[in-house]
Amino acid sequence: MSTVTKKELIDRIAEQTQAKRVVVKRIIQSFLDEVAAELAQDNRLEFRDFGVFETRTRAARVAQNPKTLQRVQVPAKRTVKFKMGRLMKQKLAPAEMAGDVSN
Predict the structure, then answer these.
(1) Which residues contact 83 (CB under 8 A, 6 or more apart)?
(2) Would you list the domain boundaries of the chain?
(3) Displacement of CA 17 from its chain's centroid (Å)
(4) pLDDT tens digit string along 67-87?
(5) Torsion-angle region of residue 87: left (phi > 0), alpha (psi -120 to 50) or beta?
(6) What is the CATH T-level fold of the domain 51-103, as seen in this structure?
């Protein structure tokens, strides 16, 4: 598995669309900023067939430091959950399951 950076995505999209790299970078950054802003307001983002982003609050809990075995309070925190959409599931499905869309 390799890592794809934002720069690499910008380069790919600029090449595919024949748009200037600077314009594509501005659009992608604006999109990411808007996603973060909406999630910060606890809004749910739904992109049909791609997936849904929503925030969840993890409850506070008591954990244990594995080195010292000391108990540590872990405060509640907000996280982002992503649920795959139909097309994403199809793309990630093994080849023999690609035709099965009953889920």
Answers:
(1) 51, 52, 54
(2) 1-41, 51-103
(3) 23
(4) 999 999 999 999 999 999 999
(5) alpha
(6) HU Protein; Chain A (4.10.520)
